[in-house]
Specification:
The complex is a heterodimer of chains A (286) and B (272).
Chain A (H helix, E strand, L loop, with lengths): L10 H16 L5 H18 L11 H13 L8 H32 L1 H15 L7 H8 L3 H25 L3 H9 L4 H38 L5 H10 L3 H29 L1 H10 L2
Helix pairs in contact in A: 3-11, 4-5, 4-7, 4-9, 4-10, 6-7, 7-9, 9-10, 9-11, 10-11
Chain B lengths: L2 H7 L9 E14 L2 E14 L3 E5 L6 H8 L7 E6 L2 E2 L7 E4 L11 H5 L1 H5 L5 H13 L15 H13 L5 E5 L7 H18 L2 E6 L2 H7 L2 E6 L4 E7 L14 H15 L6
Parallel strand pairs in B: 3-8, 3-9, 6-7, 7-8
Antiparallel strand pairs in B: 1-2, 1-4, 4-5, 9-10
Classes of the chains: A mainly alpha (286), B alpha/beta (272).
Chain lengths: 286, 272
C-alpha cells in the first residue's frame, strides 16, 4: 500500500481501519460473536414491533427480560421463583448425570477389558442405544411416581450411552506399546488398569462427559414434562397451558444457560485432570 | 561409573566372558486365518555379557518378533532361549526394552516416567530416585526431571526412555529401532550418546535396526537376518577399534563391512 505525503492524507484513518480488521480477525469471539447476538436481538425486536407479530407468538425481547428479572427476583425458597425450580432441575440433572456417567464409564471399561463380556453384550447395547430414551419417560412416572426418582432415572439412562461409547473407544485407542511397556515391567492387572489404561482413556472419557452434561438437562426437563410438581420443565408446561409466552422464553433461555454452564464445568475439570492431552496434541504437530 | 571403568570399556571388544543369552533352534510361528506364518525359523546364536549386538534385516524379517521373544513379551513355539543360564519365561527385571517410540506417559513428569518400572514392580521408589536423577544427568536431562514429555524434543524423549530402561540396572538392554523415528542429525547424536552410555554402564545390548551403517558403527557383532521365514544369514564380527568416531564411517574398512552386510541381505533378492 502506498501513501502519499499529503497533509490531508487518510493515513491515520487507514491505520485505524487496519487495526480494526486485524482485531476482528484475531478475536472474533470478542468482536463478531457479540455483534451476531445484538443482530439477533434486533431481528427479534423488529419481528415484535415492526412486523407487529402478536405477543403470544413472538413476545418482545423486553417482555422476556422483564419476566426473567421478575422470576429471578424472588427468594430461592419461594415457589414462584425461577431459582427454586432451576435448583430442582439442576439437582435432578446432576444426580442423574453422576449415576449415569459413572455407570457408563465403569461398564464401558469392563466390556472392553473382558472381550467375552463385551462381545456377548454388544447386540443388546446397540439395540438399547437405538431406542429413543425419551420414549421411556412416561413409564418412569408409572414406576417412580412424580418425585425425584423418575427424573434421575431418565437422566441417568440418557447420559449413560455417550460416556459408555467414548470409554470403549478410548480403551480401543490405548497405544499397544504402552501395554507392552507395562507388561515388560511385570505390571499387575490392577496397575495395568489404574496406571496405564484408565489415564490413557481420559481424553475420550471427558469428550463423553461433555456430551452427557448437556444431555442431562434434557433428561431432567423431559422427565418433568411427563409429570412433576416442581422444576423448570414443569413450569414451562404450566406457562404453556396458560399461553404466557414471555416467561416460557425466559425459562428456555435459562435452560440454555444452565446447559452451557454444565458443559463449561466439565471442560474446567478436563483442563485440570487431562491437562496433558491438548498440549501433547499440539506438540506432536505435523 | 568411575574413569577406570570407562577406560577399560573403550578397549577394543572388551573381554566378552560368558554367554548372557543363548538361543538354540528358536522358532516362532503365528497362527493366522490362512494357515501358519513362520516368523522365526531355527535361530542359533549367543550374546555375550557386555557385548553390543545388532540385528539387521528388511522390514518383516522377524527382527522385532525376535526382540519381543527375548523380552519375554511373546512366547516362542519351539527351541530354547536362556537368559543368564535360566530358561526364558516371560519378562524379567534382568532385561529392559526401549521401543521405537519413546512411549512416555504424557500425564507423568520425566522423573515419574523414569520411575514407572519401579512403581509397576512395587519396589521402594525412594531408593531409586537418586539413581534416576544420576542417570538423567548422564544423558543431559538433569534439568528436565520435573518437566512433562510434551515439553521435550524427540531426541530428549528417547533419551528419557533409555534412562527408564536403565533405572532398574538390568543386565540386558533390548532396543527395537529406537532411533528410527528421529531425523538423521539427531540420530547420529543419539548413536554417539548410546556408545557413551554403553561404555559407562557396561550393559549387554541387543539393537534392532534396518540401517546397515548404524549397525556397523555401534556393534561388536551384527546378526544379518533374511525374511520369510526369518533366519540368520550370517553373523559378522566388527573389528573396528573403539572408541569410534563418526568419521569411521568414511574408512575403507567400514565400507567393506557395509558391502559384505549388504550382499548378505541382498542375497535374498530384496532391494532397499
Amino acid at each position: 500500500m502506498v501513501h502519499t505525503l499529503d497533509d490531508r492524507s487518510p493515513v491515520n484513518a487507514t491505520l485505524t481501519r487496519d487495526t480494526f480488521v486485524r482485531t476482528l480477525r484475531r478475536y472474533p469471539q470478542f468482536t463478531i460473536s457479540p455483534a451476531i447476538l445484538i443482530g439477533l436481538i434486533a431481528v427479534w425486536w423488529a419481528a415484535a414491533h415492526v412486523l407487529r407479530m402478536p405477543a403470544y407468538i413472538v413476545p418482545p425481547p423486553e417482555d422476556v427480560l422483564r419476566a426473567t428479572v421478575r422470576g429471578l427476583s424472588y427468594s430461592p425458597w419461594d415457589k414462584a421463583s425461577y431459582w427454586y425450580h432451576a435448583g430442582i432441575t439442576v439437582w435432578e440433572a446432576v444426580i442423574g448425570f453422576t449415576l449415569g456417567s459413572a455407570a457408563g464409564a465403569v461398564i464401558g471399561l469392563a466390556l472392553s477389558h473382558w472381550p467375552l463380556l463385551g462381545r456377548s453384550w454388544y447386540p443388546y447395547i446397540v439395540g438399547f442405544q437405538s431406542l429413543p430414551k425419551v420414549a421411556l419417560a412416561p413409564l418412569m412416572v408409572v414406576w417412580f411416581g412424580f418425585g425425584l426418582g423418575g427424573k434421575v432415572f431418565i437422566t441417568a439412562i440418557i447420559t449413560f450411552f455417550p460416556v459408555l461409547v467414548n470409554m470403549m473407544a478410548g480403551y480401543q485407542s490405548v497405544e499397544p506399546e504402552r501395554l507392552e511397556l507395562a507388561r515388560s515391567c511385570n505390571a499387575s492387572e490392577m496397575h495395568l488398569l489404574t496406571k496405564i489404561i484408565i489415564p490413557s482413556c481420559l481424553p475420550f472419557l471427558f469428550a463423553g462427559l461433555g456430551v452427557a452434561s448437556v444431555l442431562s438437562i434434557l433428561g431432567a426437563v423431559v422427565g418433568e414434562f411427563v409429570g412433576a410438581s416442581a422444576g423448570l420443565g414443569m413450569l414451562l408446561m404450566q406457562y404453556n397451558q396458560a399461553l404466557e409466552i414471555a416467561p416460557m422464553f425466559a425459562i428456555i433461555l435459562l435452560l440454555a444457560g444452565i446447559g452451557f454452564l454444565m458443559n463449561y464445568l466439565v471442560s474446567l475439570a478436563e483442563r485440570r485432570y487431562c491437562f496433558w492431552a491438548q498440549r501433547a496434541n499440539l506438540a506432536r504437530g505435523p | 561409573m568411575n574413569n577406570a571403568g570407562v577406560a577399560t570399556a573403550f578397549e577394543p571388544n572388551a573381554a566378552p566372558t560368558s554367554a548372557l543369552i543363548q538361543s538354540r533352534g528358536l522358532s516362532k510361528t503365528y497362527a493366522t486365518g490362512n494357515g501358519d506364518v513362520i516368523a522365526l525359523k531355527n535361530l542359533n546364536f549367543e550374546v555375550n555379557d557386555g557385548e553390543f549386538v545388532s540385528v539387521v534385516g528388511q522390514s518383516g524379517c522377524g527382527k522385532s518378533t525376535l526382540l519381543k521373544v527375548l523380552a519375554g513379551l511373546l512366547p516362542y513355539t519351539s527351541g530354547s532361549v536362556t537368559l543368564n543360564g535360566h530358561p526364558l519365561r516371560g519378562p524379567t527385571p534382568e532385561s529392559a526394552v526401549v521401543f521405537q517410540s519413546p512411549v512416555l506417559l504424557p500425564w507423568r513428569t520425566v522423573m515419574e516416567n523414569v520411575l514407572l518400572p519401579i512403581e509397576l514392580r512395587k519396589l521402594a521408589m525412594a531408593s531409586y530416585r537418586d539413581r534416576a536423577a544420576e542417570l538423567l544427568n548422564m544423558v543431559g536431562l538433569g534439568d528436565f526431571a520435573q518437566r512433562y514429555p510434551f515439553e521435550l524434543s524427540g531426541g530428549m524423549q528417547q533419551r528419557a526412555a533409555i534412562v527408564r530402561a536403565l533405572v532398574q540396572d538390568p543386565r540386558l538392554l533390548l532396543m527395537d529401532e529406537p532411533f528410527g523415528a528421529l531425523d538423521a542429525m539427531t540420530r547420529e547424536q543419539m548413536n554417539l550418546e548410546l556408545m557413551r552410555i554403553w561404555s559407562q554402564s557396561r550393559k549387554t545390548i541387543i539393537f534392532i535396526t534396518h540401517s546397515i551403517a548404524e549397525a556397523i558403527f555401534l556393534s561388536d557383532r551384527v546378526i544379518a537376518m533374511t525374511s520369510r521365514p526369518g533366519t540368520i544369514a550370517d553373523v559378522l564380527t566388527i573389528g573396528l577399534p573403539r572408541p569410534r568416531l563418526l568419521s569411521v564411517i568414511n574408512t575403507d574398512r567400514f565400507g567393506r563391512y557395509a558391502a559384505k552386510l549388504r550382499s548378505l541381505l541382498d542375497a535374498q533378492g530384496g532391494m532397499f
